[in-house]
Design a protein that fits this description.
This protein has 71 residues and is an all-alpha fold. The protein has helices at residues 6-20, 27-33, 39-50, 54-61. The protein has 4 helices and no strands.
Length: 71
């Protein structure tokens, strides 16, 4: 089988975290369950792909309006 590039691997895992998330669930717990090895790795990928920190993104999804909307 073909090897997956790091950016592709990271994006697929990030997509799984975002799709699985609902208010009250920890993004970090989901991230670790989806294969991210550390908070720093998850945070970097999250900001790079969604343009907001995980905390600000979650607040915006919950209707808090904090931070930028995800791209």
């Amino acid at each position: 089988p073909a090897r997956t590039s790091a950016p592709g691997w990271s994006r697929r895992r990030l997509d799984r975290v975002v799709e699985s998330w609902s208010p009250g669930l920890s993004l970090m717990t989901l991230a670790l369950g989806c294969g991210f090895g550390s908070y720093a790795q998850f945070h970097r990928v999250f900001v790079r792909h969604l343009g907001a920190t995980p905390r600000n993104w979650a607040a915006a999804q919950e209707g808090g309006g904090a931070g930028r909307e995800p791209r």
